[in-house]
């Protein structure tokens, strides 16, 4: 395996791979009566490629868990990612681009460049619980697209697999970078807090592999290409140039539609506007965020704390869930009233 064969080189750059990816690794459960599932080194990278592009590691200087991604050195991904995460831009609360902690090359692979990022989770894992949690996700991702477009960058693939979250506050005892149901030791089962009970959860856009930077705002923001997770975008074409910014708006709107609208109808007008077939009929990112903020301001606080119904749930499940939400709201109001 490529990563195992380069473990010592990576260590020379300050990053230590898990024991499974060290030369000469022997499974810790061999010769014992312990099941592999109870051994940390049983977790392996879950990638469809035979040679995964991303691997987890520990930063030697402080033990921080990180992810290392190898990129083709001629790719614009690194250039765009680094330009969006300068110290100055990272101070912008609208910036939701994954921080780049480090970049480096190795002498034996000069056609590759490596980027180091924090360990994050998919935005939907664990599932959303309350309406306010979903609304916070939508607000942050719209802010992120406003920021990107303001920097002259179209993501072009800001869909499900390319939005991650920093769930540190949800996992007081940490979580394993690969065995996500386990604590950081890879053995004990993790018991995360709900997003609404955590101090803060931040969402990030990742993977700028097909993103485009438009340095001159006076030039048309035209691109060609049909790549991307969301193949329902009507604009995509390998031959006909199209405006890249409305594509980002459509992708996010389609994501909201499939993830939340069936459970929360208040979002329907915004989502329908964002997923119009004609690009010129969609709001731009700034207007979409403004429309969302208007919807949000009209909501009562208890609505944000109410549980997010699951699409297709039965009437009985809905009734039981609503009773639970009502009980939690009574407890919340009682604590507020009595000051406890």
Word description of this protein:
Helices cover 32% and strands 15% of the residues. It is of the alpha+beta class. It has two domains: 2-297, Transferase(Phosphotransferase), domain 1, CATH 1.10.510.10; 309-338. It has a five-stranded antiparallel beta sheet. Strand 2 (54-59) and strand 3 form a beta hairpin. It is globular. The model has no long low-confidence stretch (mean pLDDT 89). This is Protein kinase domain-containing protein. It comes from Rickenella mellea. GO terms for molecular function: ATP binding; protein kinase activity. Residues 1-340 form the Protein kinase domain.
Strand content: 15-25%
Any idea what the shape is? globular
Give the number of domains. 2
Structural class: alpha+beta
Task: Please compute the radius of gyration using only Cα atoms.
Answer: 22 Å
Q: Strand-and-helix sequence, N→C?
A: HHEEEHHEEEHEEEEEEHHHHH
Domain Protein kinase: 1-340
GO molecular function, one term: ATP binding
Protein name: Protein kinase domain-containing protein
Pick out its properties.
ATP binding; 2 domains; 12 strands; protein kinase activity; 340 residues; five-stranded antiparallel sheet; Transferase(Phosphotransferase), domain 1; 10 helices; Protein kinase domain-containing protein; single chain; alpha+beta; Prot_kinase_dom; three-stranded antiparallel sheet; Kinase-like_dom_sf
């Amino acid at each position: 395996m490529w990563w195992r064969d380069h473990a010592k080189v990576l260590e020379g750059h300050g990053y230590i791979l898990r024991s499974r990816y060290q030369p000469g690794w022997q499974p810790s459960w061999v010769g014992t009566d312990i099941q592999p599932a109870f051994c940390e080194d049983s977790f392996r990278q879950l990638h469809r490629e035979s040679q995964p592009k991303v691997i987890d590691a520990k930063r030697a200087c402080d033990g921080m868990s990180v992810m290392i991604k190898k990129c083709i050195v001629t790719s614009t991904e690194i250039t765009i990612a680094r330009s969006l995460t300068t110290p100055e831009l990272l101070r912008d609360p609208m910036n939701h681009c994954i921080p780049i902690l480090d970049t480096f090359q190795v002498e034996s692979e000069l056609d590759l460049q490596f980027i180091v990022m924090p360990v994050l989770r998919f935005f939907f894992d664990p599932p959303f619980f309350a309406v306010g949690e979903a609304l916070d996700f939508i607000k942050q991702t719209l802010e992120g697209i406003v920021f990107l477009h303001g920097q002259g960058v179209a993501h072009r693939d800001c869909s499900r697999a390319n939005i991650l979250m920093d769930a540190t506050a949800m996992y007081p005892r940490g979580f394993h970078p690969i065995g996500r149901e386990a604590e950081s030791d890879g053995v004990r089962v993790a018991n995360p807090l709900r997003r609404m009970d955590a101090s803060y959860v931040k969402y990030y856009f990742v993977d700028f592999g097909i993103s485009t930077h438009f340095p001159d705002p006076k030039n048309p923001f035209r691109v060609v290409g049909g790549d991307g997770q969301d193949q329902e975008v009507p604009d995509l074409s390998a031959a006909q140039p199209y405006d890249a910014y409305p594509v980002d708006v459509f992708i996010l709107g389609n994501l909201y539609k499939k993830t939340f609208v069936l459970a929360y109808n208040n979002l329907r007008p915004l989502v329908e506007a964002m997923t119009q077939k004609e690009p010129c009929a969609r709001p731009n990112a700034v207007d979409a965020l403004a429309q969302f903020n208007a919807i949000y301001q009209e909501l009562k606080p208890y609505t944000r704390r109410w549980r997010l119904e699951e699409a297709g749930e039965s009437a009985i499940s809905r009734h039981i869930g609503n009773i639970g939400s009502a009980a939690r709201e009574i407890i919340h109001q009682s604590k507020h009233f009595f000051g406890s």
